[in-house]
Amino acid sequence: MRDVRGLGLMIGIELADPCGELVGQGLDAGILINVTRDNVVRLLPPLTLSDAEADAVVDGVVRLIEGNSA
Quick one: CA dihedral 54, 5, 8, 32, positive or negative? Predict the structure, then answer.
């Protein structure tokens, strides 16, 4: 991971390597993400996001990224 940045609930996680395959892996895991610039995972959760949902998304995205780096 190179950088994490955000504005409001919009969060970008810049990775060192291309990560486009995470979109499909995320869908399989029930997590909707977008990858921009070939190596930035973008999260755009709804404004009604609960704390429990946020925790679940963070856990899921961490698993995706860690699984991708192995």
Answer: negative
- Number of structural domains (the chain) is 1
Which CATH number is 20's domain given?
A: 3.90.1150.10
- Domain span at residue 24? 3-69
Q: 61: which 2 tokens?
A: 């995205």
Query: Helix (H, G, I), strand (E, B), or coil: what is residue 7?
Result: strand
The pTM score is: 0.86
Q: Work out the end-to-end distance of the chain between its first and last CA atoms, rounded to an integer number of angstroms.
A: 13
The model's pLDDT over 30-58, given as tens digits with 9 standing for 90+, comes to 999 999 999 999 999 999 999 999 999 99
